[in-house]
Please model this.
Amino acid sequence: MKITVIGAGRVGSSVALNCSIRELGDILLLDIVVGLPEGEAMDINHQLAERGIDCTVRGSNNYEDMKESEFVVIVAGVGRKPGMTRMDLLKTNAEIVKAVCNKIKNYAQNSKIIVVTNPVDPLTYLVIKSLGGQKTKIMGMGGMLDLSRFKEHISTVTGISRDSIQAMVISEHGENMLPLVRFSSIGGIPLSEFITAKQSEDLINKTKKIAAEVISLKGATVYAPGNAVSTMIECIVKNKRAVLPVSALLEGEYGCNDICIGVPCVLGSEGIEKIIELKLDENELKVFDLGGQSVKNAIENLSLTKI
Model:
């Protein structure tokens, strides 16, 4: 199994490390910065050697090396700075992702693709349209990362082990994300049995704002995104058919058409095997629709239909 990660900065290197530790395959770190991917690969390999893990990580500046990749993870792009929203990155990162797509067309057209670059939902749409690929094989990471943050907040508020928590976050990976208290549980018991209405509201707000707080403190989110991507790849490689929130192309689901946005999906060997359509209540649907409109506006701003 060959996994190519395009972008060897902190998040890309975290993806490579997490995939290697799970022994999902050999990793190619690609970057335009001379020396960076090679240095990161060396550092990761030293850790893997001590742990007795035989997956190898290689660094390169040559896109031809991505040939025969089963997976391509797109991390390339500029990151958020303190005070920025994900949508502030749209035009700059769209140009970077377009260039990456041209390389994928040449060298890894048949790979499954996971988009990490922000804003992830419109850029996942851009990748699908640019490559003309199967929508089941191209997805964005957003919801998986939001889910990890939501679960951490639930554990903190309830004082119950993270291992007992099942949760779900959908909609836009951005200002209109939708942590679903109503579809979350602890040990199979509805989350609402453990928290008050005020705590529920606080959990939602904290989940929406925590990424900006991390960025203000350390400049970037790194470890949770790396884990989120490796979890997605593991589900596909091992045909787990697990239900995870990922950014997927909707064609009528949730009342949306021709946009990518975070929804629960069954991930198996073919990629996105099924989109699960939850019955949202009026308030939940209102937030989801705001997210859908935000993504739609971003797509229109980029004139992606002309690609």
In short: The helical segments are 10-21, 36-51, 90-107, 120-131, 142-158, 197-218, 223-237, 282-301.
